[in-house]
């Protein structure tokens, strides 16, 4: 059984930067270290951070004096201020790409545009961007929701960085007749787009596509969704322990793709497990 890893897979720059800085903080800071919410959407990395002393707080109430880390998704301005007041020290690890979207949304609001964010309203990145986008901000995640946007003079559109490009094109198109002036900014993350293209290319030429990453990771889930839409037999797993041998019976090639919050060591464990099964079957056939 041949195992092929997608050309672009795993940690993006922003996640790699945030993860390294959090581990460095755990090793070099005296006193408690907190993140408001999981640093990244990968339970295995979050568990390692917890063992190193970085506690993922579920709310501001769980944070006390110490160092508070702002995760790669960012925070709304009012939440950031409250975090600073509670912790005393803050390390802002918001992804630079996300920061750029926050600034774009703030600039549009200041210029008198009604800001529309294309994305998942429950995703922390989108909630953070909305905090910069003015009181009239709207969040849409489908063409139907876009069609319900009230008409106005000027609309400015930004996108959740990890959203699917094709969905953004359709939703943005549905917004074009909603105002005299519609400014659409492509704020999709290049790393996310590259992983989507790599996953689709891989899924088109393998028998089984494995998408590796947290089940709570939006960008990883989207990779699996795209592969399934292509018609590939696709499984989304977090770790090697979730692999089921029956999935690979009679399979010649397996493709492995991974979201931007998936560390290399998890991808390597998946590949090693698959190759061990392939080697075992080869030895069995030889013996027969």
Total beta-strand segments? 12
Query: How many domain regions?
Result: 3
Largest sheet: 4 strands, parallel
Regarding CATH, which class of the largest domain?
Alpha Beta
> What number is the mean pLDDT?
93
Low-confidence stretches are 282-288
CATH architect. name of the largest domain? 3-Layer(aba) Sandwich
**Order of secondary-structure elements:** EHEHEEHEHEHEHEHEHEHEEH
What is the alpha-carbon Rg in Å? Answer: 21 Å
Distance between the termini: 18 Å
Number of helices: 10
% residues in beta strands: 15-25%
Percent of residues in helices comes to 40-55%
Shape: flat
Content-based structural category? alpha/beta
Write structural notes for this entry.
By secondary structure, the protein is an alpha/beta fold. The protein has 3 domains: 102 residues, 4-hydroxy-3-methylbut-2-enyl diphosphate reductase, catalytic domain (Cobalt-precorrin-4 Transmethylase, domain 1, 3-Layer(aba) Sandwich), CATH 3.40.1010; 82 residues, Rossmann fold (3-Layer(aba) Sandwich); 92 residues, 3-Layer(aba) Sandwich (Cobalt-precorrin-4 Transmethylase, domain 1), CATH 3.40.1010.20. It is built from 10 helices and 12 strands. The strands form 3 sheets. Strands 1-12-10-11 form a 4-stranded parallel β-sheet, sandwiched between helices. A 4-stranded parallel β-sheet has the order 3-2-4-5. Helix 4 packs parallel to helix 5 and helix 8 runs parallel beside helix 9. The longest helix is centred in the last third of the chain and has 24 residues. It is flat, with a radius of gyration of 21 Å. The protein starts with a strand and ends with a helix.
């Amino acid at each position: 059984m041949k195992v092929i890893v997608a050309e672009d897979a795993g940690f993006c720059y922003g996640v790699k930067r945030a993860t390294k800085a959090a581990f460095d903080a755990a090793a070099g800071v005296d006193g408690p270290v907190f993140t408001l919410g999981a640093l990244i959407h990968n339970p295995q990395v979050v568990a390692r951070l917890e063992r190193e002393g970085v506690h993922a707080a579920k709310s501001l109430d769980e944070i006390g004096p110490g160092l508070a880390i702002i995760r790669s998704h960012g925070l709304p301005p009012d939440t950031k201020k409250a975090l600073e007041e509670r912790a005393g020290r803050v390390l802002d690890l918001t992804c630079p790409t996300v920061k750029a979207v926050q600034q774009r949304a703030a600039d549009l609001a200041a210029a008198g545009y009604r800001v529309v964010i294309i994305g998942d309203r429950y995703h922390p990145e989108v909630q953070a961007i909305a905090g910069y986008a003015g009181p009239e901000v709207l969040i849409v995640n489908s063409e139907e929701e876009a069609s319900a946007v009230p008409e106005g003079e000027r609309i400015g559109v930004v996108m959740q960085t990890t959203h699917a490009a094709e969905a953004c094109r359709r939703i943005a198109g549905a917004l074009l007749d909603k105002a005299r002036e519609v400014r659409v900014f492509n704020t999709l993350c290049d790393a996310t787009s590259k992983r989507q293209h790599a996953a689709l290319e891989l899924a088109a030429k393998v028998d089984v596509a494995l998408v590796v990453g947290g089940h709570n990771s939006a960008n990883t889930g989207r990779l699996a969704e795209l592969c399934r839409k292509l018609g590939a037999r696709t499984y989304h797993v977090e770790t090697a322990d979730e692999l089921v041998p029956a999935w690979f019976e009679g399979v010649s090639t397996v493709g492995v793709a991974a979201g931007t919050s998936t560390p290399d060591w998890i991808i390597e464990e998946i590949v090693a497990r698959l190759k061990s099964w392939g080697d075992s079957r080869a030895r069995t056939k030889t013996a027969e």
